[in-house]
Amino acid sequence: MFQHTPxxxxxxxxxxxxxxxxxxxxxxxxxxxxxxxxxxxxxxxxPGRATSxxxxxxxxxxxxxxxxxFRADAAGEPIVLEGYVLDTQCRPLAxxxxxxxxxxxxxxYDNAGFRLRGHQVTNAEGRYRLETILPAVYxxxxxxxxxxxxxxxxxxxxxxxxxxxxxxxxxxxGLYRPELVARKSGALLAFDFVLPA
Length: 197
Ligand code: FE
Description:
Bound molecules: fe (iii) ion
Number of helices: 2
Distance between the termini: 20 Å
Strand content: 15-25%
Number of strands: 9
């Protein structure tokens, strides 16, 4: 299998930024940008440093269906969250398991079924892509998306949350961590999950 080295990955990311800049300059629509471009994920992987773990909170439901597109689950503003699952040497992990869940556009979770809940696996490049809607804030929490990540289904799980930049609620949320903020351009968010060794 082709393995990215940190150096080749940096070059890929700088190329991606150039593509994004060029797309903006030529006036391509944000929709096209969101479909085709890739943002530099935040934070860039630093060898030896895994993504911080966070509480799963009170609303996790196990045994989710395989689902990478939540758009049919609930009305709301479309967003995309995408990125890599990496090991602590910043190598992409193909076939890694991610289980996402988040609030709807009224700030409510579906605790009876699997609306806005689903798992997926990374592709051969170690990438995931979640097409969903913008979660609303709810009492005591800033805007966030929950996730459990594992190198493979049934393996050791990293539970964490990712956050949105520039949210007024970030500073008031005791769980919020700046290192868990995704990079954002319009409807496209990017975050890489780095699994502990
Ligand atoms: Fe939550």
